[in-house]
TrEMBL record:
Listed GO CC annotations: extracellular matrix; extracellular space
Domain of life, per lineage: Eukaryota
Gene: LOC112043543
Record-linked InterPro entries: Insect_cuticle, Insect_Cuticle_Struc_Prot
GO terms for MF: structural constituent of cuticle
Name recorded for this polypeptide: Cuticle protein 10.9-like
Range of residues in the leader sequence: 1-22
Membrane spanning residue stretches: none
UniProt source species: Bicyclus anynana (Squinting bush brown butterfly)
Keyword vocabulary terms for this entry: Cuticle, Signal
Entries under PANTHER family matching the protein: CUTICULAR PROTEIN 50CB-RELATED (PTHR12236:SF79), STRUCTURAL CONTITUENT OF CUTICLE (PTHR12236)
Length: 110
């Protein structure tokens, strides 16, 4: 065989070996990233004396993951329920629940 023929064989061999080279390994599954907690805060209040609507809530979380919040609801029987709660570490939801009889809370706030 001439050296040209050998070169041709070699070229074909290279092409075939390139074609049968295994497909690239699949990209590794995206790693779950642990971002630190983002501080946040919200609050809302609804007061409508005519319709006897009085409720609201608030909550804030800090960069350590501690959550503090509360909510209140005026019940139709005149009791005002307030709940204040914290969640810290593995504490779970820790509420303090209070009822105030005959609350009449309208206009109490400045
Ligand atoms: C959040 O809500 C609770 C229950 O209504 C209340 O006692 C507390 O003062 C509120 N906190 C803020 C920051 O508004």
């Amino acid at each position: 065989m001439s050296s040209i023929t050998w070169l041709a064989y070699a070229f074909v061999l290279v092409c075939v070996s390139v074609q049968v080279s295994p497909a690239p390994a699949p990209a590794p599954a995206p790693q779950e990233e642990n971002y630190p907690p983002m501080p946040y805060e919200y609050k809302y209040d609804v007061e409508d004396q005519e319709k006897l609507l009085y409720f609201g809530a608030n909550e804030s979380g800090d960069a350590q993951g501690k959550v503090v919040g509360g909510y209140k609801v005026l019940h139709p029987d005149g009791r005002l329920m307030t709940v204040e709660y914290t969640v810290q570490g593995d504490s779970g939801f820790v509420p303090i629940i209070k009822f105030e009889q005959n609350a009449n809370p309208f206009g109490k706030r400045k």
